[in-house]
Amino acid sequence: MEPNVTAQDADIERLKEFEARIARGESIEPKDWMPDRYRKQLIRMMSQHAHSEIVGMLPEGNWITRAPTLRRKMILLAKVQDEAGHGLYIYCGAETLGVDRAELISQLLSGAAKYSSIFNYPTLTWADVGVIGWLVDGAAIVNQTMLAKASFGPYARAMVRICKEENFHKRQGYESCAILAAGTPEQKAMVQDAVNRWWWPSLMMFGPSDADSPNSAELMRWGVKRKTNDELRQRFVNMTVVQAQAIGLTLPDPDLRHDEVTGDWHHGEIDWSEFWSVVKGDGPCNRERLAARNAAHDQGAWVREAAEAYVAKQAGRARASAA
Ligand SMILES: [Fe+2]
Ligand SMILES: [Fe+2]
């Protein structure tokens, strides 16, 4: 037998065993054998997720200095710091797949990598901060709760902790919206306007419809995703409609209707042309976000240099004491 045929057979065997492990619900760990496609898909998903956490600090970070009370400022500071932690945590998870974090970050800074399109929208008023917590973190929880059952161990474990923090993010946002909705007419109008602007982009966070999502089938087979984009979006809509009603806010969708049979709230048509234009870089703040990340990276150069100098010094000391 030709040697390359043997190697190919061995790969087919390993793939069968890999898929059997996933079917048994076992988690795949970094040192386990995995198909190249699986590794690549996970690096793509995890790095996009980490980038989203990091870029996601910008729209709200913009309001830290303008938070209306000390309590709100402390909450917002804690939330934005949590998002930084989520990003670092997921970059670490991605590194276990054999990719260098510096490389991932350079892809973000050059604009080659994608991140969640929701963060390319501006935060125009204070109410946006509440609505982001309620809707954007709310949508993120639906996605991330599903990812906590993903087949790749480091990703799934990262999600468990992250989801706990996301729950706090959502609650503080919903609480802020409830207070504004019960406030003066101006406050109520401000929060309703923010809901009107964020509702549709939040629905787009789940990604294209199943029919237009080329990666979905493979990701489902390998247990990276457990539910389709449309299923998760439906779950989010069902939860949120009731929450909006409870605080007297209206979701900007005249076609929203309750299906008595399934219990689902059906939503109107999503404007996918808007989604694709934001993904391709033409959203309201794409350029601003990338410029802010690049400026932060450049301003942090001295920290990276100092850290490297420190490591070199420590290594020198270790060598001297070993001699
Ligand atoms: Fe987060
Ligand atoms: Fe969050």
Tell me what portion of residues adopts beta-strand conformation.
under 5%
Tally the helices.
13
DSSP summary, beta strand count: 2
Which term fits the overall shape?
globular
State the distance separating the first and last CA atoms. Answer: 54 Å
Radius of gyration: 22 Å
Helix content: 55-70%
- State the low-pLDDT regions, or none: none
Mean pLDDT rating: 94
**Structural class by helix and strand composition:** mainly alpha
Strand order of the largest sheet: 1-2
Along the chain, the helix and strand elements come as HHHHHHHHHHEEHHH
- What summary fits the major beta sheet? 2 strands, antiparallel
The bound ligands are: fe (ii) ion
Give a nutshell description of this structure.
By secondary structure, the chain is an all-alpha fold.
Main attributes?
mainly alpha; two-stranded antiparallel sheet; 2 strands; 1% strand; binds fe (ii) ion
Describe the overall structure.
- Helices cover 69% and strands 1% of the residues.
- The chain has 323 residues and is an all-alpha fold.
- The chain starts with a helix and ends with a helix.
- Bound molecules: fe (ii) ion (2 copies).
- Residues 83, 137, 140, 166, 169 line the site of one fe (ii) ion.
- One fe (ii) ion binds at residues 83, 137, 140, 166, 169.
Helices and strands in order:
Elements: H1 3-23, H2 36-55, H3 57-61, H4 70-95, H5 101-110, H6 127-147, H7 153-181, H8 185-204, H9 216-221, H10 229-246, E1 257-258, E2 265-266, H11 272-282, H12 286-299, H13 301-322
Antiparallel strand pairs: 1-2
Residues 53, 83, 86, 162, 166 line the site of one fe (ii) ion.
